TrEMBL record:
One GO biological process term: DNA-templated transcription
Protein species of origin: Oceanisphaera psychrotolerans
One Gene Ontology term of the molecular function aspect: sequence-specific DNA binding
UniProtKB keywords: DNA-binding, Transcription, Transcription regulation
Name used for this protein in its record: LysR family transcriptional regulator
Entry similarity comment: Belongs to the LysR transcriptional regulatory family.
PROSITE patterns in the record: HTH_LYSR
Domain HTH lysR-type: 5-62
Alphabetized InterPro entries for the sequence: LysR-type_TF_proteobact-type, LysR_HTH_N, LysR_subst-bd, WH-like_DNA-bd_sf, WH_DNA-bd_sf
Family matches, as PANTHER family: HTH-TYPE TRANSCRIPTIONAL REGULATOR, HTH-TYPE TRANSCRIPTIONAL REGULATOR PERR
Length: 287
């Protein structure tokens, strides 16, 4: 038997903690202000700690109140999702993902048939912008480190190789041509610098020169059309490597430091559909 205060008082506290006003909470909950105040007092008495600092016409959360509010928001979100899934079977089958467009089109798309075999009961809804959807079940993120306040698991590190169009192979030995760079959040990724260091060519090639692109697809298309030389994650250009549209001009490979991370908010970790997707990501080959 769980030892918990009344669910009503927890719900009243969550609403009050969000708006920091007994009056506004009463309006949202369709009760009187005195009822809200009474429920908060009962909860504080049960816990033995104050949850609010009461000032003139103003409420502030205590440290205990702030901690409780964070946990309650997660718990109520999870309960709401569980109820919605039972009321709407179609919603239970939909897994909503936030995924970078390059990863979605170049890595995930070729493996969707495999995912359907693994989890035929799930339908994916894939988005590449935070503005497209208010609530994602989980996300794939490009970065270097785990995300705070989330469950973050590294899916794969980038494996960078040096490539160019076949017609540029003769120039590749001296890297006599344009270097193609990828931008991330408006900044040039130090991919060329890392590769030149691994290849022992630092100081022999000016990594600062060349053209910049905002997506890997743009860099890949430019390289395929002979615009210059690129350092690219080999998993993202499998198609071009197989067809010979791009060819490696060195055996040097650099692992990381960037990679793709699976991020899940705490309140969604226990969802069966999220667990199925996580399980599949761990099982499927990244190559």
């Amino acid at each position: 038997m769980r030892s918990l205060p009344a669910l009503t008082s927890l719900r009243v506290f969550e609403t009050t903690g969000k708006c920091l006003s007994f009056t506004q909470a009463a309006t949202q909950l369709h009760v009187t202000q005195s009822a809200v105040s009474r429920q908060i007092k009962q909860l504080e008495d049960y816990l033995g700690v104050p949850l609010f600092i009461r000032r003139h016409h103003q409420l502030e959360l205590t440290e205990a109140g702030s901690q409780l509010l964070t946990k309650l928001e997660q718990s109520f979100n999870l309960m709401e999702t569980a109820v919605q899934e039972l009321r709407d079977p179609k919603q239970r089958q939909k897994l909503t993902l936030l995924i970078p467009p390059t990863f979605a089109s170049r890595w995930l798309a070729p493996r969707l048939a495999n995912f359907h075999t693994h989890s035929p009961e799930l339908e994916l809804s894939i988005h590449n912008s935070d503005s497209e959807h208010s609530l994602f079940d989980c996300s794939i993120r490009f970065g270097r480190t785990a995300r705070p306040s989330h469950y973050s698991e590294l899916v794969m590190l980038e494996q960078h190789i040096a490539v160019c169009a076949p017609e540029l192979l003769e120039q590749a030995e001296q890297l006599n041509g344009t270097l193609l760079h990828i931008l991330h959040k408006g900044e040039r990724l130090p991919i060329w610098e890392n590769w030149l260091q691994a290849a022992g060519l630092t100081g022999q090639v000016d990594a600062g020169r060349g053209m910049e692109f905002s997506t890997l697809d743009q860099v890949t298309n430019a390289a395929v059309n002979g615009a210059g030389f690129a350092i690219v994650d080999k998993r993202m250009i499998n198609r071009e490597l197989k067809t010979g549209a791009l060819v490696p001009f060195s055996q040097v490979e650099v692992s990381g430091p960037y990679g793709y991370w699976l991020d899940i908010r705490a309140e969604r970790q226990g969802l069966a559909k999220v667990m199925r997707f996580t399980e599949w990501l761990r099982e499927v080959s990244p190559d």
